[in-house]
Amino acid sequence: MCGIVGLHLRDPGLHPQLGRLLESMLCGVVERGPDSAGVAVYGDRRRVPAGHAAVSVLLPPGADTSALDAHVSTAGDTAIVAAPVSPEDLVARVKALFPTARVVGSGHDLTVYKGVGHPRDLATTYGLADAVGWQGLAHTRMATESAVTPEGCHPFSVGPDQCLVHNGSFSNHASIRRELVRQGVVFDSENDSEVGARFVASRLAQGEDLEKALLALRETFDGFYTLLVTSADGFAVVRDPIACKPAVIAETDAWVAMASEFRALAPLPGIEHARLYEPEPGRVYAWSR
Amino acid sequence: MESLSFDLANTTVRALNAELHDPSVKSYEVLHPDGAHAVAAGIDSGIAVEVRGHVGYYCAGMNDGGTVTVHGNAGTGLAENMMSGTVRIAGDASQSAGATAHGGLLVIEGSASMRCGISMKGVDIVVGGSVGPMSAFMAQAGRMVVCGDAGDGLGDSIYEARLYVRGRVGELGADCVEKELRDEHRAELAELLAAAGLDHDVADFRRYGSARQLYHFQPGQGRY
Q1: What CATH number was assigned to the domain covering residues A3-44+119-288?
Q2: Is B90 left (phi over 0), alpha (psi -120 to 50) or beta?
């Protein structure tokens, strides 16, 4: 069991409240995954100034970041490195200085936080309530397939400004991993969800949009999944064809939200007038900015 | 009649349910459930509970004699294993509504998600809207009325429950077949619709049930 929440804001007037809203949603799924939590925020100019790239990274203990020649802010185990260069160049700079560091997110708009502990405490560590932006997601984890570590936290962000969070388990991930490796894809972990994220990233890199990429995922992957996948301009949800894992979507003119359970949606402004529904099995739901 | 109100914004579900299990009055109101789990689970007397808002998992589970009305939607496992009484949902219900329920009446005024009535064992379920795939899976006894459509796999591996659907039915589940709607079926369907407060014409419904061809209906064919 894991918990997923995501919020895609349509009303720019809510952008300053993104972090506070996401934190209240996260607190609604704590019981579904109390061992660790990850968060992604899109458009947080506090940490990613305009014209900058950002790399979210789990640095080795005691790492001296002064040689990075970049703006570095830390939030628990995660450091956010920002500089006015391309995301690829900044990732290369971080990896050159810290070969054992794990890059957990990169792009022009994306910050990713990961850590182990009670999700409510982690939200404080991440400074989530103060985050601003136009889209965000969070995942609380009850690990079943791999160790409880910051690296094992979702979201898996393996392409520029992309994130994937997964509730469930894939059963044929090993064979899909082998095929992707054959195509030259490099993996960070043995995690089944990372295979999903790498698969989506490879489809997006081929020019597909989120909806097409997730339709391809549905045809390729076997197992249990509710996925929330985000990109530089998109927000999408898909469940496996027998809908083993829960999901609820709520929509108003001001926002689109998705969560494992309604109780994570209950604190949202205007929820009493939202259109509430469960995503149908095997159907891809996608929104874009 | 004296009534007690519980506001779950400042009271725990545990405190609510402790009162409902040892009731001091006959009538209760629950405010701000906000998706909480196990609201009004385990009632074993003839009390009435009105819940104003959406509830989470297992609402009114194991109900035995209570009348629980939810003015909102319900999460997974609504009225699971109900023994008797009435549970009514004004909105939609998530997966596995009425799972394994032995008796009583479950009314879902909106639609129900997948696996509605899974392994039902005697409950009556009336759904004003549609039900999702795999509904009435392994249904053993009781009646299910669907005023809208039913998804694929309806009645898969069904034993003796009777299913009535007014709208379209997807692919039927294994060993589930359409059956003749005879007078006794029209009579019980009319009773169920009346009990739910619905006035559809019984002639618009079709009946489904077990073909009794799976191995467990074949003497000597059991494999376990």
Answers
A1: 3.60.20.10
A2: alpha
